[in-house]
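hey all, quick one before standup. I had two proteins in the batch that finished overnight and I want to keep them in one place so we stop losing track of which output belongs to which input. First protein below, input sequence then structure tokens straight from the run.
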Amino acid sequence: MQPLKLSLLLLTGAIGSLQAQDNCLQQIKFPVVGRWAEYQALYNHKEPYSMRYAVVGSEKRGGQDLQWVELQMKGGTADRNIIYQMLVPGSLMDMSNVQEIVFKAGDKPAMKMNGMMMQMIRGQLEKQNLYGEVCKDVSLVGKERVTVPAGAFQTQHYRSVKYKADSWLSPAVPFSLVKSTGENYQMELTAQGNGAKSSITEQPQEMPGMGGPSR
């Protein structure tokens, strides 16, 4: 995946920042199965591509309710098309507890990660998770009505001076993010809807040679 990479404070300012961060995290809601949101994204001023987040299924493991979140990325050529599916515990911020990851690059077979590869990717997802970055060290700017290709939304605007980033969130949108901008990226909602299903229809193959058994 091409993941998104995104002074001392007075005591009162620090408390205000923590309160804003908590409030920001509360705005990010995990959607029900079938909901999806698509974004136009641009990273490092390179060719733009689309990103589609969707909840495509759910299951229970070890008494825990888990959801399959699919991230589908499409670029200008077929080799830039990537699908990631992650089995997560119902929180986009808690990527360290991802239970399973399946990915498909272009026309290549879908692969299920295991062993050392799974551990490595889990750590990368935790560090570079867009939804974890959105609320980091933010202050609340206020309520704003924002217009993006998907329409106009009443949002809460959060700003991080430290990371030079702005994000606009709305509970009316699956995954809550309407727009986000930073030094090296920008993304905005282009569409949303219901009825999302897995974009991977084949049986994923076990990835060999990375510390896990082959099947």
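OK second protein, same deal, sequence then tokens:
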Amino acid sequence: MVEKAFCMMDKDNSGKITLKDISYIYDVTLNPEFLEHRKTKDEIVTDFLSNFEGARGDRDGVITKQEFFDYYTDLSNCTPSDEYFVRMMESTW
């Protein structure tokens, strides 16, 4: 499931998720910070991407496959079951 989600977001098949990759699928038009002109689309998408770098990421704004897998490894440890994790991934991506 995590591999599938990563591949879906890695639009150019570079093995990394970048601002360019995600800006095509992440709609910020209803984000309050965007609506109130406090942040640009790129700033909001960059903030979103930084979540996936996690504690072990290098904070460069580019999500490697390893960073993405580490994020979901940490998250899966907090889920009650594998079935729950799969449902969560399916509903998110």
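Flagging for whoever picks this up: The radius of gyration is 14 Å. The chain has a mean pLDDT of 88.
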